[in-house]
């Protein structure tokens, strides 16, 4: 993780709350980060979670004080044993809260184009039952519609070199 001590020194003393306790009463969003990893044929590397019935990309929740790019690299390493930095930011997608989950800001980073034949993936047994390479269309029945939309936009961003902004998988701006 980056050391921001020099930046903190430049910014000076932390802000003081004008109304004590107000920061604790403000809404807190969950932040997640994942990697869009592709193969030369255009297939996406999906993880098969053991805690939900849908496919996802390698990634997870950003810890307190952790930059999203560092969280992406950490989660990819923890989930599938692949040690590589997060690439270029492809997409920022906000998702509304549903069920037990708060709303989230989700970052999708470029995980690169890798040859599956040269990879040794080690799915984390406490989280995953495996991995799967598939095109988005092949995986569509096993993806939540919002995740399909998000990954479609992330794929477009990877192809065009743009970084995209979405809400619940719907493009807002370029």
Automatic annotation (TrEMBL):
Q: Which UniProt keywords apply?
A: Hydrolase, Magnesium
CDD domains to which the protein is assigned, alphabetical: NUDIX_Hydrolase
The cross-references to InterPro entries, in alphabetical order and at most eight, read:
NUDIX_hydrolase-like_dom_sf, NUDIX_hydrolase_CS, NUDIX_hydrolase_dom
Q: Which Pfam families match?
A: NUDIX
What is the protein's given name?
Answer: NUDIX hydrolase
Gene Ontology molecular functions: hydrolase activity
Gene3D superfamilies tied to this protein: Nucleoside Triphosphate Pyrophosphohydrolase
Extract the PANTHER family matched here: GDP-MANNOSE MANNOSYL HYDROLASE (PTHR43046)
Identify which cofactors the protein needs according to its UniProt entry.
Mg(2+)
**Domain (Nudix hydrolase): residue spans on this chain:** 28-156
Q: Does the keyword Hydrolase apply?
A: yes
